[in-house]
């Protein structure tokens, strides 16, 4: 058989490279490219054995090849292969041919690393059973083939890693107890995981392509697109990267409290998507409300015991002591004055016990309900704190009774706000106003004190988020991780469980204005879910 000429072999090498490149562009797998390469290299280089070996678990295993018989791996610790995997250029076989190659009659050849230095994926080998030298053109050709195969293998590894990463991410998203929802810049839902289906009651195919506002009650339903557009126009973050408690709406129209955290991602094409993590906190709200209910019930029990138990006992004791004092006085006893002193102290103790009872059960013990309790609160503030405190009840709404425990919650909000104004704000004048309208009830506590620090208005953050200015007019809702006092957080919570909202803002002429707004219903508000 005539050996091909050097020119013919050079043309074969160029054609092999061209074909290999076309196949790679067509997206053929790394294995298919390797199979083509080993078969083409036998003729293009005039060799007897060609193989692509991959490295795994410390071994060099044959991926595909020609002329290897039953051999399927070589010794990775052999000096020739160690040198080949470390070099950037093809390494020729020396006098000490690796034993497994020698057993196949190999006496000469080249090995070239596949992959980057330090992390080679394997090597490409071309070997002959007769002594021969390989020129620079042949070395360059083998290196070029190795580059194409290494690129295909790297692409395959990347695709495999990406597939595994997507599979893991999909498994996490699909099995997490939190709802995961993604939307685009137009607020259109792009993904909706199984947990979100359970939380909102929709199937994914019912909401994909819909506006995210479908999951919101009014007024947020109508206003949401404006929120998104405002962020896109101004970059001002109100919830992204911060998280807050909001209200969600289920498919059946019912609403529920939920924790919402939103993150923003920029895709490689420049498109922005927003991912929301949703957790239904209905059960947590029920537990919190039950704890608050139990605390109020215990407070009420103690107040009732003070009023009906201790108060009555002290009243009876005072009457008995009064009788004793009068008899002693009529008899001209020298201890009559002491008896009168005992009567006076018993009456003071009785008054103090009843005052404590009114503080513990402020609304139930008042004949006129909330208004009378707030009026007494103002009077006590003047007596105890030495401030001017006025109460006013105004409004044209019908004076229908407020459902329990709404009056108690409103009283406690007023009590906490008044205490903060005097103790922290050093106020000298405080005004309590109860405004009753046709559709809502509003309690306002306004003082002339020093006001709250900026951390109250930033949700407890020491610095404004993302360097933007803090809006001075509205306080942020209480957050689970903020550093504000427990009293402020409980005020927010009391407002929420009534179905209302609490707002804290600086006064027009200084000081602070605390406003609790509560919608009025013809029936008692449902318990927080």
Short summary:
With 529 residues, this protein is an alpha+beta fold. It contains 14 helices and 16 strands.
How would the blueprint of this fold be written?
Blueprint: H1 6-25, H2 30-45, E1 49-56, E2 59-66, E3 73-74, H3 79-86, E4 91-92, H4 99-102, E5 108-114, E6 122-128, H5 136-175, E7 179-183, E8 189-192, H6 194-200, H7 204-207, H8 220-234, E9 244-249, E10 255-266, E11 272-280, H9 282-330, H10 336-360, H11 370-385, E12 388-394, H12 406-423, E13 429-436, E14 440-447, H13 454-457, H14 486-497, E15 501-506, E16 512-519
Parallel strand pairs: 12-13
Antiparallel strand pairs: 1-2, 1-6, 2-3, 4-5, 5-6, 7-8, 7-11, 9-10, 10-11, 13-14, 14-16, 15-16
Helix pairs in contact: 1-2, 1-5, 2-5, 9-10, 11-12, 12-14
| CATH structural fold name of the largest domain | Beta-Lactamase
Rg for CA atoms: 42 Å
Helix content: 40-55%
Low-confidence spans: pLDDT under 50, at least 5 residues? 455-484, 522-529
CATH class of the largest domain: Alpha Beta
Shape: elongated
What is the CATH architecture annotation of the largest domain?
A: 2-Layer Sandwich
Structural class: alpha+beta
The count of domains is 4
- How many DSSP H or I helices? 14
Residues in β-strands, percent: 15-25%
Number of strands: 16
Separation of termini? 89 Å
Q: Report strand order across the widest sheet.
A: 3-2-1-6-5-4
Write the CATH homologous superfamily of the largest domain: GAF domain
Largest sheet: 6 strands, antiparallel
Note the run of SSEs as H and E: HHEEEHEHEEHEEHHHEEEHHHEHEEHHEE
């Amino acid at each position: 058989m005539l050996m091909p000429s050097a020119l013919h072999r050079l043309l074969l090498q160029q054609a092999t490279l061209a074909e290999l490149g076309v196949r790679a562009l067509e997206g053929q797998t790394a294995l298919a490219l390797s199979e083509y390469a080993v078969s083409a290299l036998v003729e293009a280089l005039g060799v007897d054995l060609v193989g692509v070996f991959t490295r795994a678990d410390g071994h060099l295993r044959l991926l595909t090849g020609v002329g290897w018989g039953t051999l399927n791996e070589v010794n990775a610790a052999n000096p020739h292969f160690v040198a080949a995997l470390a070099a950037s250029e093809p390494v020729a076989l020396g006098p000490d041919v690796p034993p497994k190659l020698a057993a196949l009659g190999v006496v000469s050849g080249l090995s070239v690393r596949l992959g980057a230095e330090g992390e080679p994926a394997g090597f490409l080998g071309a070997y002959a059973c007769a002594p021969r030298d390989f020129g620079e053109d042949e070395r360059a050709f083998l290196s070029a083939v190795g580059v194409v195969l290494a690129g295909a293998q790297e692409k395959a590894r990347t695709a495999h890693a990406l597939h595994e990463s997507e599979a893991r991410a999909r498994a996490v998203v699909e099995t997490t107890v939190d709802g995961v929802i993604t939307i685009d810049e137009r607020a259109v839902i792009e993904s909706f995981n199984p947990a979100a289906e359970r939380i909102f009651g929709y199937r994914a195919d019912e909401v994909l392509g819909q506006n995210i506002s479908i999951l919101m009650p009014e007024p947020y339903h109508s206003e949401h697109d404006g929120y998104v557009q405002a962020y896109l126009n101004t970059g001002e973050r109100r919830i992204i990267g911060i998280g807050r408690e909001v209200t969600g709406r289920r498919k059946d129209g019912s609403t529920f409290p939920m924790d919402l955290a939103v993150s923003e991602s920029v895709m490689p094409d420049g498109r922005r998507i927003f991912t929301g993590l949703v957790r239904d906190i209905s059960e947590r709200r029920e537990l919190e409300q039950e704890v608050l209910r139990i605390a109020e019930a215990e407070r009420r029990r103690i107040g009732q015991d003070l009023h009906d138990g201790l108060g009555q006992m002290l009243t009876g004791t005072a009457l008995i002591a009064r009788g004793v004092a009068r008899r002693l006085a009529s008899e001209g006893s020298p201890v009559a004055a002491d008896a009168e002193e005992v009567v006076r102290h018993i009456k003071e103790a009785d008054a103090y016990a009843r005052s404590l009872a009114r503080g513990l059960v402020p609304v139930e013990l008042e004949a006129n309900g909330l208004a009378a309790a707030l009026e007494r609160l103002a009077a006590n503030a003047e007596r105890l704190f030495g401030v001017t405190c006025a109460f006013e009840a105004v409004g044209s709404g019908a004076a229908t009774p407020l459902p329990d425990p709404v009056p108690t919650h409103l009283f406690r909000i007023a009590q906490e706000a008044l205490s903060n104004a005097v103790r922290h704000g050093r106020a000298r004048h405080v005004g309590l106003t109860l405004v009753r309208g046709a559709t809502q009830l509003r309690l306002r506590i306004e003082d002339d004190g020093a006001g709250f620090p900026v951390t109250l208005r930033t949700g407890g953050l020491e610095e404004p988020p993302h360097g933007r200015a803090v809006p001075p007019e509205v306080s942020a809702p209480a957050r689970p991780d903020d550093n504000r006092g427990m009293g402020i957080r409980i005020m927010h919570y009391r407002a929420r469980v009534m179905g209302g909202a609490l707002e804290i803002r600086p006064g027009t002429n200084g000081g602070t204005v605390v406003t609790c707004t509560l919608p009025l219903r013809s029936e008692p508000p449902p318990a927080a879910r």
